[in-house]
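Exercise 7 asks you to align residues with tokens for two separate proteins.
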Amino acid sequence: MATYGSDQLAALADPSRRAIVEALRAGPRAVGELAADLPISRPAVSQHLKVLKEAGLVADRAEGTKRLYRLEPDGIAAVRAYLDRMWSDALRSFADFAESTESEEP
């Protein structure tokens, strides 16, 4: 069973997919618009968008003859929640360690 958030993190492991997510922060864009700003082909952008969509990080809708892609708030929230949990756990562990070493001092 995959850890909650791991599908999204795996999708973001690729630098091209991260670049696409960054580009979509400004708002919905078509594949051609994304490809024009990236050093990869339009078919490659489409494949990356497919992975991002399967991971729940982007959604698309038809507008005329093209599809517009946008960030999916629930998918982005899942990544943030996962990272927040990891950070909280790490801080809690650090605090526990610091407190235990203070109690060991003479």
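Second protein for Exercise 7:
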Amino acid sequence: MYPLKTLVVIALALLPAMPVAAGDDHAQQTARRAVEQGRYVPLEDVVRDAMRRHPGTLLEVELDDAVYEVEILRADGVVVELDYDARNGKLLKTELDD
């Protein structure tokens, strides 16, 4: 399963949209609304697929121009970046860094 820190990061990313508070990131609010409106697939679905394909430690998840970028450190020390289309959840590309 995921380490506790990872679960907290995922849970925070999946929170329903709330009124923007001081210091809240506008990009996060926009992404949350897109998921709620069905324009983007939930981050949880993408992370689950990435971890199934490349088990390891989740390092980072970013959303950039409707692309979820997921970085995983595998047990063999290789960092894998998987890019998913945020609109439909399809895997676009996979890059390996030693």
